[in-house]
Amino acid sequence: MTRPNDSKTALHFGAGNIGRGFIGALLAHSGYRVVFADVNEQVIGALRERGEYDIHILDLEARTERVQGVTGVLSTGDETVPAIAGADLITTAVGPNVLKIIAPTLARGLEERAQAGAGPLNIIACENKVGASAFLRGQILPHLSGAGRAYLEQSVGFPNASVDRIVPPFEGEDVLDVGVEDFYEWYVEGPAFKGGIPQIEGMKVTDDLMAYVQRKLYTLNTGHAIAAYLGSLRGLGTVADAMGDPETAEQVREAMEQSGAALVQTHGFDAAEHAAYIERIEARFKNPHIHDEVTRVGREPVRKLGPQERLIGPARMARDLGLPAHALLRGAAAALHFRNAEDPQAQELQALIAEKGLAATVTQLTELPQGDELHTRILEGYAELQPA
After folding, report:
1. Burial status of residue 369 (CB atoms within 10 A of its CB: 0-12, 13-18, 19 or more)
2. 21 appears as a binding residue in the annotation
3. What is the dihedral of CA 361, 364, 369, 373, to 10 degrees?
4. For residue 213, which of 130, 135, 95, 306 has the smallest C-alpha distance?
5. Is 85 known as a binding-site position?
6. Residue 128 pLDDT
7. In 3D, which of 106, 101, 79 has the Cα closest to residue 91?
8. Does the pLDDT of residue 4 top 60, yes or no?
9. What is the pLDDT of residue 62?
10. How many helices (H) and strands (E) does the chain have?
11. How much is the mean pLDDT over the chain?
12. pTM of full prediction above 0.90
């Protein structure tokens, strides 16, 4: 049976677990021919050779889904620019820090589209970063000529998105196998599309994306991070292990309830519906079939301690509304204890504390001035938390 997007091509940057297990899979299920772009030669070679792979749904009722109609190109190779020039849609799941790296390549592809008089194109950055698509647009612009800029302004949309699916490391029988939880959400900013909104299975379009971006970042990502940082301090290996510890589970829930109160008041969410959303997230964290190590979830603590990020952002929102934030600040304090020999940012964090002291480090990362109530409570929480 012909589906709405048959004969259309989606280029997806990032052939890792999130790319294959979430966005790329939804595009393929929606009828797109999906071309993955990545630096991993083994994965790209397997995608080109087989044109399909399996997704393992990690839930009480485990099942397997086959994704077909896919291929790959090396993002550093000669095929990527022509793939950009010929794409009907471009998405990314490369990590926020990699967007600036792929921007010059995207610019070259947009230049080719401009020269060829190509039609509209939408580029959706599906990253755990507020305004990721707009950020990517800003990274592309300096690499464009006048004609390229004119084409971008007129014909290229950069809809921001909020993505939510837990995709842990997974060891299957095949290099392309990927494991995911059953639940997912993908909200995209409707007014930012150019040339119409594509029909994509599982993609929800909204006129108020920021509400959903903050709901996800300040609930799912907040709870996930705090579970990881408290779990790490207490010698617990996975998020499920951390949530199996009554004290940790209670503190994670308290943090999500504090951010939830601020979100309900800020965005007008229904309080009962948001409470149910928190309960669903708790159940996801406790899923025994998802082996998500706290070292993975807690990585990049420098970024995650940013002023608008998952720990400080909701704490500031709560404080500004006159609401409690102590559980959120406990999570920030736990993040400052985070150690992981394989994570450069964890190493950078401990080096900053050793060099500048705790108070100056907190100010540098969170932009909270010394003497600020939130700053003071983070320092107090750090002193109270001790590694196992």
Report:
1. exposed
2. yes
3. -60
4. 130
5. no
6. 83
7. 106
8. no
9. 79
10. 19, 12
11. 95
12. no
Is 255 annotated in a binding site? The answer is: no
Task: Identify the structural domains of the chain with CATH numbers, from first to last.
Answer: 9-207 (3.40.50.720), 210-384 (1.10.1040.10)
Contacts of 29 (CB under 8 A, 6+ apart): 67, 201, 202
Q: Is residue 11 marked as binding?
A: yes
**334-353 pLDDT tens trace:** 999 999 999 999 999 999 99
User: Is there a binding annotation on residue 15?
Assistant: yes
Please give the angle made by the CA atoms of 375, 327 and 166, to the nearest 5 degrees.
110
114 annotated among ligand-binding-site residues = no
Instruction: Output the pLDDT for position 2.
Output: 36
Calculate mean pLDDT across residues 293-305.
97
Annotation-wise, does 340 bind a ligand? no
Would the annotation count 10 as a binding residue?
Answer: yes
Which whole-number Å values give the CA distances from 364 to 311, 340, 353, 358, 384, in the listed order?
15, 21, 11, 10, 21
| 228 token code pair | 């990881």
Measure the CA–CA gap between 245 and 258, rounded to whole angstroms.
20
Query: Which pLDDT score, from 0 to 100, does residue 27 have?
Result: 98
